[in-house]
Amino acid sequence: MEFKEAKNKFVQSWGALGSQWGINKTMAQIHALLMVSNEPVSMEDIMEELQISRGNASMNLRALMDWGIVYKEFKAGERREFFTAEKDLDELAVKISRERSKREIKPTLKILKEVSTIEVNNSPEEKHFVDQTEKLYDFVLKVDNMLDKITEMNENWLGRMVIKLLK
Fold first, then answer.
1. Which of 4, 21, 32, 115: disulfide with 11, CB 3.0–4.6 Å?
2. What are the C-alpha distances in Å from 100 to residues 5, 79, 93, 142, 156?
3. What is the C-alpha separation between 154 and 162, in angstroms, rounded?
4. Order of all β-strands in the sheet with 41-42
């Protein structure tokens, strides 16, 4: 397999995985392309490589920058905008974990808290509902707290050392 074919296969596969992770295929493909590029890439090059429109590229680049995993870079003498992805995989994992917690886990916790505190009228069905939603709330809260601790550990030198030792 040649480089161009391997790169295309990786970008396409990453895009397919992205849909399974809850982000759109194009967003994941742009991220993959930037992640494996050794130089910052212009929006025009992204559009050409992935055969997408300017609007699609722009919207997905903005979303990736909002996640904090893609950065805009400026080149002296160039009017075009260039983009690069976070290359540190540990940092990438931390940023994605934080963003997913903010967008998915925290809203779920809010809903679980709300539905598990309804007033119960002696019905076995209602009691079971409250019991199960309280258990789900406790479990999701533990998972979220664990993710917070892991991301906090990765931010300090001692935590990074412990994580490296565990690898």
1. 32
2. 32, 34, 10, 15, 21
3. 9
4. 41-42, 82-85, 70-73
